[in-house]
Amino acid sequence: MANRDTIYRELIQLDWEVKDQDEFFDKMTDKLLELGYVKGTFKDAIKTREANYPTALPVEPYPVAIPHSDPENIIKPFIACTRLKNPIKWCEMANNDVQHDVKFIFMLGFLGGHDDPNAGNEHVELLQVLVTNFQKPEVMDKLVNAKTEDEYMEAVLSMEGL
After folding, report:
1. Where would a tag sit more exposed on the chain, N or C end, judged by fewer CB atoms within 10 A?
2. Cβ neighbours for 6, distance < 8 A, ≥ 6 positions apart
């Protein structure tokens, strides 16, 4: 997957208002379904995966969630980038007992998988690139201060390694 080629302007959402993680998944899945990125199985799959394997990264000062689903639920690869108006509770990666107030969500849709010899480690590499960038104050400042979806997309595309 060419990371830059999976970031679409139509999947940049700024200042979304949702009350919780469940509402976020409902809202984003509806958009992804409508635009043809995911299959009807995606919503249940991503909610189940997140319940079992939470994805909030405890980076300071802005924790970030990077939910993703198994490839069989994806039609077209994507990175859906969202900045919420108000933070919502999200369980920490590898630790369901700790919750973070998350305002930034990067939902990932991958094709191929662990059993696909052509997929390689692209999804792991993308996760590493994102985690590295989320730890940089200058990157997060751009995401915080973006006033438009275009500015936000420019900030995402300026991340090192994408």
Report:
1. C
2. 77, 78, 79, 109
The residue behind tokens 């990666």 is 93
Residues of the domain holding 56: 3-157
Kindly state whether residue 144 falls inside one of the protein's structural domains: yes
What are the structure tokens assigned to 48, written together?
A: 């189940």
The tens digit of pLDDT for each residue in 41-75 reads: 999 999 999 999 999 999 988 999 999 988 999 99
| Average pLDDT value for the chain | 92
Contact 94, 57 (CB under 8 A): no
> What is the pLDDT averaged over residues 4-19?
95
Q: Global pTM?
A: 0.92
- Residue identified by tokens 């635009």 is 35
**What is residue 72's DSSP assignment?**
G
**Residue 89 within a domain:** yes
> Which residues share a beta bridge with 79?
7, 108
Residue 74: closest CA among 54, 91, 53, 49: 49
**Assigned domain for 162 exists:** no
CATH number at residue 141: 3.40.930.10
Q: In sequence order, what E strands does 19-113 have?
A: 56-57, 64-65, 78-92, 95-109
Q: Per the structure, how many domains does the chain have? A: 1
